[in-house]
Amino acid sequence: MDLSAIQDSAAAFFDVAQPDARRIFHGRGQLYPGLEHICIDWLAPLVLISAFDEIEGSAAVLQVLRDADTKGQIQSVMLQNRFVQGAPAQALFGEPLEQLIVTEDKLRFEVHPGLQQNCGLFMDTRLLRDWLLANSEGRNVLNLFAYTCSLSVAALAGGAKSVTNVDMSKTSIKWGEKNHDLNLQDLEKVKSIPHNLFKSWGKIKQLGRYDIVLIDPPMRQRGSFDASKNYGAVIKKMKSLCKPNAQIIATINSPFLSSDYLQKLFEKHLPGAKYLGEIAVAGEFRDKYPERALNICHFEMAARQDENLDQPHGDGAFS
């Protein structure tokens, strides 16, 4: 196995101090033949290697990483076999670090490397968090499929008036509340709905209307959501949840569904919404086929809505 691409990425990455969580190597982007099954993340001071198939020569990968660490930043390296049921992890170097506080610019997040398939922070949406930092001042934000609430943390850090986090996992919602607390955010501004989205529309509407809605679902959530079947039903609800000119950020991450799929759903179920383009995915997640990877689509509600809908309340439109 030719490790030169990993060697080059790691050497460039560790050539400078790296205080923030970042992806070091993105083999899943299919730009490096023979390494498509390997991703490497930096969760300072831990390197997490995610293997989506057997790595022949994991010791060689470890040596490449340690050779690149000229400034002594790595304290631990863990390998997680994502292709094995339960995604077991093992320490290749140092002690296993199963709970960490990592930073992303001025934000802080708790992560759990190797304990489950996802560590708790999706680093590919880093630029969306930047967008929220710059565009949330005074806004009422709805975060659907909130997971550990990293997007809501960014919204409050950007001056949001309030955030409403919705996720069927009570564990994730509690984790998200810890993330808000880590960033010294006022929990009075955080509303949590740890229930199935499709059974919670009434409660969600009570806490609206919203200036920004974030729709960042898993492609398939057993017993709850399937992007190919249920995304349209979520988009339909935006009519009754959004203020005029509200910003809607909707993501899709599937080799079979692209941003075109989302645009068609919006045209069908929310024809008054305008497609503004895509928010870029973090650059370290370059992909040979970007349309098959994460797409972050930006829509804007019309300035006026159907007269039969309830009149919007709150402090006006997004500007």
Describe the structure.
The protein has two domains: 4-111, Transcription Regulator spoIIAA, CATH 3.30.750; 123-300, Vaccinia Virus protein VP39 (Rossmann fold, 3-Layer(aba) Sandwich). The chain has 319 residues and is α/β, with parallel strands linked by helices. The protein is built from nine helices and 16 strands. The longest helix is centred in the middle third of the chain and has 13 residues, at 170-182. Strand 4 (76-81) and strand 5 form a beta hairpin. It has a seven-stranded mixed sheet with strand order 10-9-8-11-14-16-15, with helices on both faces. The chain starts with a helix and ends in a 19-residue tail after the last strand.
Beta-strand proportion: 25-35%
CATH architecture descriptor name of the largest domain: 3-Layer(aba) Sandwich
The low-pLDDT segments are: 307-319
Structural class: alpha/beta
CATH class of the largest domain: Alpha Beta
Total of DSSP H or I helical runs spanning 4+ residues? 9
- How are strands sequenced across the largest beta sheet? 10-9-8-11-14-16-15
User: Can you summarize the main beta sheet?
Assistant: 7 strands, mixed
Please give the share of residues in helix: 25-40%
- The fold-level CATH name of the largest domain is Rossmann fold
Tally of domains: 2
CATH superfamily of the largest domain: Vaccinia Virus protein VP39
Q: Could you tell me the radius of gyration in angstroms? A: 20 Å
Q: Please provide the count of β strands.
A: 16
How would you spell out the order of helices and strands?
HEEEHEEEEHEHEHEHEEEHHEHEE
